Amino acid sequence: MLTSLVRPIITPLMGLSVVGLSILTVPQISLAQTAGHSSHHHLMIGRDNLQTLTSGTYAGLANPNYNRLSLLFPHLHDPVSTSGLHAIGIYSYTGPAINATIIPTNTNNQLPEIGKAPALSLTPGTGVFTNKMVSGKTEDNMYSDLKMKPLDHLTDDLAEPFVHAIYNAGNGRWNDLLGDDASISIELVAVSPGLGIANEQGQDLFNAVGDTYLIGQGDHFSFTPIFYASPSTSDQNYSASFRLLDTNSSNNRTPWLSSGTFSINVQAKAVPEGSNFLGGLTFLGIMGFFRYYKNIKKSKLIAKNEDLEYLA
Which DSSP category does 104 fall into? Predict the structure, then answer.
């Protein structure tokens, strides 16, 4: 279907020492986060306004993500005031600080984050996704809500401690406005064979690697990609990689810089070979029941008519 490059983040780095830039100090994730989804426990899009790195191996160097779009994942911590954002799609430095090299990805670039949860499950679809295995929000995987919204949508709920904490994460590093003129698009960088990406209406977003799809304008939009695949008799693992772009350069406007590359990993469990046969038997059984019920009603009606004729 499309050009393949499965899990493109780990292997292309060829063993280089890569240090992500914006993984904040992380207290232990609370049980509340894994027990369910907050109404704001989904992916967010921000613009990095930090000009110079202030901590870590590369402190004092220019932030390679300054004025770049960033894909962010909120983490609920205990206490709630320490909750923060993990940057999933960003650039990072590699190598010694004295001779550091910038690369368009980082070690924290996958959803689910490495070692924290299994790949997102694809389950039988309905409606426009009938006969497909599709992604969707589940309560057993905190990364399963793939809805994307600009960070500014949090401003209506800043009275909530969790919302206040993530909105101001990194001393407000990502909470500057994208602006009404920003046209935020998602670009397909790589995809496993057999994996499709659609919108909620079932329309495919991409025809080939390198294609872009406009997901929203300004600071007030919501977009949820749907990953789908055909049922299989064996477990199938899939991966797709993306980056975010600001594609509006009209009126001499300078677009925000692109995000780093990030990947989303999904898995479709095997569908037993006999499932269609059993489904057919079930259907035949139901139809047989209705025919039986219909015959009984017909027999009773005939008997009733005969009784009426006898009484007459």
Answer: S
Is pTM, for the whole model, over 0.70? yes
The amino acid sitting at 277 is F
Q: What angle do CA 279, 285, 290 make, to 5 degrees?
A: 130
Domain spans of the chain, in order of start? 11-268, 274-312
CA–chain centroid gap for 31, Å, is: 21
**Token pair of 308, please?**
């009426």
CA distance 294 to 256: 67
Report residue 281 as tokens: 């038997």
Q: What is the pLDDT of residues 272-304, one digit of tens each?
A: 765 443 444 444 454 454 554 555 454 444 444
Among the residues of the chain, which ranges form H helices? 31-35, 161-167, 169-172, 275-311
Distance separating alpha carbons of residues 76 and 182, to the nearest angstrom: 29
Q: How far apart are CA 246 and CA 209, in angstroms?
A: 18
